[in-house]
Design brief:
With 605 residues, this protein is α/β, with parallel strands linked by helices. It contains 20 helices and 22 strands. The strands form 6 sheets. Strands 3, 4, 6, 7, 9, 11 and 12 form a 7-stranded mixed β-sheet that branches. Strands 14-16-18-20 form a 4-stranded parallel β-sheet, with helices on one face. It has a 4-stranded parallel β-sheet with strand order 17-19-21-22, covered by helices on one side. Helix 1 (6-18) runs parallel beside helix 3 and helix 6 (146-156) runs antiparallel to helix 10 (201-212). The relative contact order is 0.04.
Length: 605
């Protein structure tokens, strides 16, 4: 029976990189039957050549992946992508581990002896194409899904490989076809939009056109993620309003799902008359209300060329008398409505009344990407942002609702808010700006997790409770100042905040929880103040740049993590050098001695 052994797999992978094909075969036989040989086979496909691939395949290597018991992180990694052009587009794929040098243009073996370390560069596309031919012939033996490889080959612009795959009968699977044109797993659609965003401008139409050929005459599905993948004013991404790309998207994506107002106001912002002409030909300006709304918008924003076109279009096509009569009837209906009524607000907000007469916001129903939460609803004060209120990961959301929440960029909360509930803003991946009001006392678990665009967060002084995972995977936050009053930094609170360089821990903290700062790979120093009593397992694990940590005299407990026969993981478990500053004869000094962690004695004041 095949076994999983990380040590044996590393031996095989190093053999692929440093030995001849015959020697690789010999090493493979000596190691016996192994699980998860996908990375070794991928290394051969990407960096070594066909002879190495054959040696491994004949020895039983394949691309199948069985998750090792207890393994964390990625549940599977697509090493079968190895022959493709692994460019910035493909690196946006959800099943690529960007921490693995395998997915770059060069890789190094992992020999312990420094003088034996070598670097290897990617094979020319011609050699990788020949390898793909061999893999196609042996697809069942190597567990290769050539239909999925075709999809990623097209997206990566690996044209010679795409051609070979088509020759061997590859086509998009029914499942992939449904995900691109109808519905399916949202993370597959999100992955597609991320990869589309990473396409270079000159590649966008050719690659999407090639993918269109595989859709069997169907149109791509459309969500707001398509819009944001091609239009971001804050990073000067305006290619959507290149008339050629704009026309392509309107022709090949599902127009019924498009936010026409968003697309047309964007065209006006870019002063693109050509794009407005395309909209007009499709009938988007036939409705008088929509047409006049665009005229007003263009005029207010001083877009003279667009204003002139829209006015000319109105003069050529409008039945002004009929429109006037309709507008008067609509005005009378509005005069009889109270715009501030609870009925009107329910169209935008889900909310619940509490026993004390205040309100909890439970759901955002609107479509705006810049949002101001009301201070009162029906005379009742808003005191809490409830669980999943804005979350793109909330249960039972429609695909369109998920896209809308993922595209929220700014939220302004009223100063009346005191509690931010669990998952309140989780998955708001475009959120760049949000205020936490001064009166907030509690931030729930996962409240801001995966808010990828947040660069800073100010936690006000009255907050005394922050839930676990609260800011996990906020990958752009660079600094954090925690308020005095916090007594515990809970499990994974700042997990994978990969841009976090500095942090200020208050003296009131007694416990630093498990994995609290794990994978904060930019963190360089950490000063843990006097008063901290316990640091739980792997609190700073994987902080590769962490060179200096100061531990106080007050620390009385530090936990390690050990799973079966795997390597013991300390609080600071990392492959990098680290020096810990401790007080003489303290618990921290004993811990460092016991775990062979380099340390120095703190100078006395």
């Amino acid at each position: 029976m095949a076994e999983y052994s990380r040590a044996k797999l590393e031996t095989l992978e190093n053999a692929v990189l440093t030995k001849s094909p015959n020697e690789v075969s010999a090493v493979f036989r000596q190691l016996g039957e192994l699980m998860n040989t996908a990375r070794a086979l991928g290394l051969a496909c990407r960096f070594k050549g066909l002879a190495y691939v054959k040696a491994l395949v004949e020895g039983g290597a394949n691309f199948s992946y069985t998750r090792p018991e207890g393994a964390g992180g990625y549940y599977t990694i697509f090493y079968w992508l190895a022959p493709l052009n692994i460019n910035e587009t493909l690196r946006k794929g959800f099943f690529i581990d960007i921490r693995d040098g395998f997915f770059t243009d060069s890789v190094r073996n992992t020999s312990i002896r420094r003088e034996e370390i070598k670097s290897f560069t990617v094979l020319p596309i011609e050699q990788r194409t020949e390898i793909v031919k061999y893999l196609c012939k042996n697809r069942e033996k190597v567990c290769l899904d050539i239909d999925e490889l075709l999809y990623y080959s097209i997206m990566s612009g690996s044209k010679p490989i795409t051609k070979v795959l088509k020759e061997y009968g590859a086509r998009l699977s029914e499942k992939r076809l449904k995900e691109l044109t109808d519905s399916g797993r949202d993370y597959h659609w999100t992955e597609f939009c991320y990869m589309m965003e990473a396409l270079e401008d000159k590649e966008c139409i050719p690659i999407l056109s090639r993918l269109t050929e595989e859709l069997e005459g169907k149109a791509f599905r459309y969500t707001d993620s398509v819009f944001w993948a091609n239009y971001h004013t804050y990073n000067n991404r305006t290619r959507l309003y290149d008339p050629k790309l704009f026309k392509f998207i309107l022709e090949h994506f599902n127009q019924k799902k498009m936010n026409k107002k968003q697309l047309m106001t964007g065209a006006i912002n870019e002063n693109s008359v050509e794009c407005l002409k395309i909209c007009a030909k499709l009938g988007w300006l036939d409705m008088p209300r929509k047409r006049d709304e665009m005229i007003n918008y263009a005029s207010e924003n001083e877009k003279t060329e667009c204003t002139a076109f829209l006015l000319d279009f109105k003069n050529r096509t409008a039945d002004l008398k009929a429109e006037r009569e309709k507008a008067e009837k609509k005005m009378m209906r509005k005069l009889n409505a109270n715009p501030d009524s609870v009925t009107e607000l329910r169209k935008i907000w889900g909310f619940e009344k509490r026993e004390d007469g205040t309100v909890v916001i439970t759901r955002y129903r609107g479509r705006r990407t810049e949002i101001e939460v009301p201070e009162k609803i029906g005379g009742m004060t808003v005191k809490e942002i409830g669980e999943n209120a804005f979350s793109a990961e909330a249960p039972r959301l429609r695909t369109e609702q998920i896209g809308l929440r993922q595209n929220i960029t700014r939220i302004t909360l009223p100063q009346t808010v005191e509690i931010i509930g669990e998952n309140a803003f989780s998955g708001c991946s475009s959120l760049r700006e949000i205020n936490i009001p001064e009166g907030v006392r509690e931030i729930g678990a996962h409240a801001f997790s995966s808010c990828l665009k947040l660069t800073e967060i100010r936690i006000p002084p009255h907050v005394n409770e922050i839930g676990k995972w609260a800011f996990a995977s906020c990958t752009n936050i660079a600094s954090v100042i925690l308020p005095h009053g916090i007594t515990e930094i809970k499990e994974k609170t700042f997990y994978r905040c990969i841009s976090l360089k500095s942090l200020s821990i208050p003296y009131t903290v007694r416990i630093i929880g498990r994995d609290a700062f794990q994978l904060c790979i930019s963190l360089e120093t950490a000063v843990i103040p006097e008063g901290t009593e316990e640091i739980r397992c792997t609190a700073f694990a994987g902080c590769k740049k962490l060179k200096s940590v100061t531990l106080p005299q007050s620390v009385k407990k530090m936990k390690n993590y050990k799973y079966k026969d795997r390597e013991l993981q300390t609080v600071f478990y990392s492959d990098e050098d680290l020096t810990v500053t401790v007080s003489e004869k303290s618990y921290a000094e004993k811990y460092c001695k016991r775990n062979n962690i380099p340390y120095k004695i703190k100078e006395r004041d």
